[in-house]
Amino acid sequence: MKFPRTHSLKEIAEIIGSGFVGDEAFPVLGMNEIHVVEEGDIVFVDHPKYYDKALQSRATVVLINKEVECPEGKALLVSDDPFRDFNKLTKHFKPFKRANSNISETAEIGEGTIIQPGAFIGNHVKIGKNCVIHPNVTIYDGCVIGDNVTIHANTVLGADAFYYKNRPEGFDKLLSGGNVVIENNVDIGASCTIDKGVTAATTIKEGSKLDNQIQVGHDTIIGKKCLIASHVGIAGCVVIEDEVTLWGQVGITSGVTIGKKAVILAQSGVSKSLEGGKSYFGSPAEEAREKLKQMASVKMIPEIFQKLKKN
């Protein structure tokens, strides 16, 4: 998430009430999670296990809960609670704005696009040409939709990320300041839910087709010409490369990559990254032929046992 203008390190420290290490005029351009940070961004870290990863990332400002040695060319924001203060920045730069109508006056809707009755289009949404948005679709603030996109009834684009910190008093929510981007020629079925990124975009690329009742988690990227069947659940920060096929009820854990042209058969559970160009099955998912051989071998165990008893 980029800020509307460049801010100084001192300005950011004043917003969150923290100390800082570095030149007070050090430029700050935005804020992002560790997997999408760029130069000029703030990243937060609140556990020693991840200090090095944050300090060595592309981020040039690290919001951290301990004053440590600052790498050359970077700056620190020193806070007693980086999670809380990251939320403060999200509230400051992406505050919640209530809606005053079903279709916001700030929405941009392209020529030939049809918005069916009952749909909700939030603030600063952009929808391209020749799209069809069916009844009761909800498109949250800031989402971007390309040309020739069809979204069926009751689908929700841009709900908050499912991201919480477990504190003694209960779960503390990390606020979402990202959005959803749907590229050209995408079809999305009924009752799908596609969550916004925490600080960046959840993206579905050109030509992909989604069936009904699919969940896509925050910051996930679905490549071009993917085919995803109903009841698939995709966690946050997943990368699905181009031309991947996911059949019904596939579940994918967070942070993994599915390689180009992979096929994952129905009811498989993906717990690690998978190479492209292969078919997978099972939970945990393995190459389909090998998994089916294993299943056939298991069926033979009683027969083998009986033979051993006779001998």
TrEMBL record:
Gene Ontology annotations of biological process type: lipid A biosynthetic process
Q: Does the keyword Lipoprotein apply?
A: no
The enzyme's E.C. designation: 2.3.1.191
Q: Note the InterPro entries from the entry.
A: Hexapep, Hexapep_transf_CS, LpxD, Trimer_LpxA-like_sf, UDP_GlcNAc_AcTrfase_non-rep
Q: Per its UniProt entry, what is the enzyme's top EC class, as one word?
A: transferase
Q: Which residues form the UDP-3-O-[3-hydroxymyristoyl] glucosamine N-acyltransferase non-repeat region domain?
A: 27-91
Q: Which GO terms describe its molecular function?
A: N-acyltransferase activity; UDP-3-O-[(3R)-3-hydroxyacyl]-glucosamine N-acyltransferase activity
Gene Ontology cellular component list: membrane
Q: PROSITE patterns attached here?
A: HEXAPEP_TRANSFERASES (PS00101)
UniProt keyword list: Acyltransferase, Lipid A biosynthesis, Lipid biosynthesis, Lipid metabolism, Repeat, Transferase
Q: What is this protein called?
A: UDP-3-O-(3-hydroxymyristoyl)glucosamine N-acyltransferase
Per the UniProt record, the source organism is: Flagellimonas hadalis
Upper lineage is:
Bacteria, Pseudomonadati, Bacteroidota, Flavobacteriia, Flavobacteriales
